[in-house]
Specification:
This protein is of the alpha+beta class and about 475 residues long. Helix 3 packs antiparallel against helix 7 and helix 14 packs antiparallel against helix 16.
């Protein structure tokens, strides 16, 4: 699990999270037996482990089974806004930067290799991979053993998809999946560079290596902390055990913050939550297979890119209120950038009704006005001055041209999603059974097709209204 808005976290003093290097058992990785993955997920002792490590779960909340082998955290008692649902001591948190400092002499050559491949931002993820592999190999001697046993053993992320499944991904999702596969391969090579050090685990096969990579990919948190020199913020991934049990939904009803004493990571309610004594079957937010009267608790993993949720986290999020438009402007001018063309949080469509953001219309119109430089300059000046009436005048004047231009992209993208759906539909049941992620991929493509089709309908309505208006003007002139 990953989030982008955890800047408030202040990690504990260096060394408080980790074993010192001098305490590492140098023979911990010397077994000749291959290190393989235990295929069974076991959450039965997670609450016991939490108690032993002073992790506090509110009596109002429980760990609950959602669907299949997936778990979440649910509320079983009405609770006030800002009530702390879960508090995880920072001594239990795995902090990649502190691990890097602790194991610097062993890790640095491998980290240099990763940075040289262009994966600068992923280097500290590798540190977490190394740490979890090390702890996994310690088995019951690891402080985190029971938490590790509670982790899912299978994933639906892009890095796990086979060639048939990849062939049914739209281009944006495929690019992300291929990037994760490339990253995993680079991490494997980097891990071999640790051979001969006390933190290296012998005999790690591809199955275990891929599993640990997925654990870090799906369950680490990214947040920014001021660097020592006071310059740019340093983004560092951490893993918050037990906190990784919160699932995603928009809007969230749980937020993350530091405790007032800065010694724990707290998960608090973002609003008052009512848990009635009785609820209708299937009511939104209830956990199937969980407590009879319970309400699911969710974090936001951030951003508006459903391809990211599919390939990085392995699920289709149909709760998001907005999705990225997939409009890309090659070599954009500073003016286009200022209008928002590179800001994916602005270049969005509303999922409920296909609403189109102002930034999209602004960028489309500014591009079209390149044919009329004087008007292009006037439009941009109105934007800089915050003159919305003047901007609206231009949008009304060129409503048809804007609509037809945007429609081409929207229709092509919607058709693309439909074609990938058909590709799966044409497969036999036996073929689909061999590729278990196809149903998830189809659901993802169908979700996006529905949204882009709503956008197309909205554009068509706007264009038709503008055609009627122009015809009416001509008939009266």
């Amino acid at each position: 699990m990953m989030t982008e808005n955890c800047k408030a976290f202040i990690p504990p003093a260096c060394g408080s999270l980790l074993y010192h290097c001098s305490e590492i058992e140098c023979n911990a990785s010397q077994s000749n037996e291959p290190t393989t993955l235990n295929s069974n997920r076991d959450v039965s002792l997670l609450n016991q482990w939490a108690n032993e490590n002073k992790i506090q779960l509110s009596p109002s909340a429980v760990l609950s089974l959602t669907t299949g082998d997936d778990y979440g955290i649910s509320l079983i008692k009405s609770s006030k806004k800002y009530e702390t649902i879960l508090s995880v001591p920072k001594e239990v948190v795995m902090d990649s930067e502190y691990i890097r400092r602790e194991w610097y002499e062993y890790l640095e050559p491998a980290l240099d290799y990763i940075r040289d491949t262009g994966l600068q931002e992923s280097a500290l993820n590798f540190v977490l991979v190394v740490r979890i592999l090390y702890e996994y190999n310690l088995n019951t001697d690891s402080r985190w053993h029971l938490w590790i046993q509670s982790l899912p053993k299978t994933f639906n992320t892009g890095v796990c998809m086979d060639d048939v499944e990849l062939d049914c991904l739209p281009p944006f999702a495929l690019a992300l999946a291929n990037f994760e596969k490339q990253q995993w391969q680079i991490f494997q090579k980097a891990y071999e560079m640790l051979r001969g050090t006390p933190i290296f685990v012998d005999g790690v096969n591809d199955e275990l290596s891929l599993w640990v990579f997925n654990v870090v990919l799906t369950r680490c948190w990214r947040y920014a902390q001021d660097s020592d020199d006071g310059d740019d913020d340093m983004v560092r991934p951490i893993v918050v055990p037990f906190g990784d049990m919160f699932n995603h939904r928009e809007p969230p009803n749980v937020v993350v913050k530091d405790s007032d004493s800065f010694d724990s990571v707290d998960f608090v309610l973002a609003l008052y939550m009512d848990v009635p004594n009785h609820h209708p079957q299937g009511q939104e937010g209830r956990q199937q297979g969980g407590e009879e009267n319970s309400v699911g608790l969710f974090l936001s993993y951030g951003l508006t890119n459903p391809h990211r949720f599919l390939t990085v986290f392995g699920f289709c999020d149909e709760s998001m209120p907005e999705v990225f438009s997939q409009l890309l402007f090659h070599n954009p001018t500073p003016e286009l950038i200022n209008l928002g063309c590179n800001d994916r949080s602005k270049m969005v469509y509303r999922t409920s009704d296909g609403g189109i953001s102002t930034a999209i219309w602004d960028c489309i119109l500014y591009t079209l006005l390149a044919q009329v430089p004087s008007e292009q300059e006037q439009f941009y000046s109105a934007h800089i001055d915050g003159n919305t009436e003047e901007k609206l005048r231009f949008h009304r004047k060129y409503a048809l041209e804007e609509s037809l231009t945007l429609r081409n992209h929207v229709e092509a993208t919607a058709n693309e999603f439909r074609d990938y759906m058909k590709k799966i539909d044409f497969m036999s049941e036996d073929e689909r059974a061999l590729h278990p992620r196809l149903e998830l991929i189809r659901r993802h493509n169908h979700f996006l097709f529905r949204i882009f089709d709503k956008v197309r309908q909205r554009i068509d309505n706007r264009a038709q209204a503008e055609v009627k208006r122009r015809r009416g003007v001509k008939s009266t002139s």
